[in-house]
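Lecture notes, unit on protein representations.

Consider one protein chain, 243 amino acids long.
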Amino acid sequence: GGSGKVIVVPSINYKMVYCPPGTFEMGSPKSEKGRDEDETQHKVRLTKGFYIGVTEVTQGQWKAVMGDNPSHFKDCGADCPVEQVSWNDCKRFIDALNRMEKTNRYRLPTEAEWEYACRAGSRTAFANGEITETGCGNDRNLYKMGWYCGNAGNETHGIAQKEPNAWGLYDMYGNVWEWCEDWYGKYPSGNAQDPDGPASGSYRVKRGGSWCDDARYCRSANRCSFDPVRRFDYIGFRLARTP
């Protein structure tokens, strides 16, 4: 466990941290407060290390690659997460970034990579402990790590203002939902190795909750899915990279 080296994507000054291969319990125990039925706990082995963004992609970084800023919360500033980006928009951004960087390594994280990075070795509802409040009340652990309906004041906030997890990742909880690569579907009942979701589907996975969500939707294990062509002011993304 533990995180490895940090790299910077030169053209957008985006920091990424290395997550080593490892095994973890994906999903939530039946005893977890606020859990949903689609979080069946199962052991996942990731055989390949990967890089993941230390932060969500910002409005400034989006503009540097795409030349525009689709965000609703423009007044929040260049260091606030980009939102109003569909899954398809994010794929266009990634294609453009790969061209700029003369590579093909940048991508969205898989759902399993996302949860592995989010947990950073933890097994509790949040990376810093259990959940006590499922709604907008003051959950002392989530309050320290994320912007949700209990503390966000109905808007996004600049990246990396809350505490990071043990691997140095910020805003994995709240601020904006983060698109993952996978189609949404049922988890396998047994162990899985390098899972990348079902072969087809209607909705793409989004993770982490947002500024307008209850605490329960920000839990490490919480799963949500959305139409890949739609845009909302509470959905953004974080980059992954194949080493």
